[in-house]
Amino acid sequence: MSQLDLAIAADVSARHVSLVETGKSQPSAEMVLRLAEQLDVPLRERNVLLLAAGFAPRYAESPLDSTALSAARAAVERVLHAHEPYPALAFDRHWDIVMTNRAVDPFLTGVAPELREPPMNLLRLGLDPRGLAALVVNRDDVRTVFRSRVRRQLAAAPDPELTALYQELLAPGETGEPVEAEVLIPMIIRVDGVELRMFSTITTFGTPLDLTLDELAVESYYPADDETAAYFTASLPR
């Protein structure tokens, strides 16, 4: 994004943006947040920018089970329950699973106990042979999708813990080839002699003011064919 593009989007002069970028002008807290909004900077990084500019952070980080986030937690629980009989789960910025619906439980029965210990990590669960990887038919496709998503996440907000996970689970065998139309690439899992074909969507909170909510995502899995839909309907009636 050029200085002019950013200035137009933020409704400020290009000269002021240039002075801020070169350190010749001290921006106000409001200007920092206005520019960060146009650059789609994650809330955690906006706090870092505010501190760098000499201001206090604006965004708190509350535990998901806190009173402050009780309404949000209840909303996530409703979304997960409403998605049954199909699997859905909520995870944080490190891909640690914080909530699941009942449809996820049957897939965890064969997972190694050490992988089920909290916090249960979605990347490790999906890519570790002791987890669900042994059930996934198209492991290379799934790994490529994960790789693409984590790359984008790290580009937006570098994080040491997520980088370590990437290096451990995704960097080996990296080809750099992009995946097109991720939402249409199914995850194929072989369970009980049946190949289940599913695709997923990601839901996030709109305009959150808390770091926990800003970094929380709900992944909902949908059947990609009638056989898969019938399997879930029979295994977990509404």
UniProtKB/TrEMBL annotation:
It comes from the Bacteria. Residues 1-46 form the HTH cro/C1-type domain. Signal peptide: none annotated. Pfam families: HTH_3, MLTR_LBD. InterPro entries: Cro/C1-type_HTH, Lambda_DNA-bd_dom_sf, MLTR_LBD. This is Helix-turn-helix transcriptional regulator. It comes from Kribbella ginsengisoli.
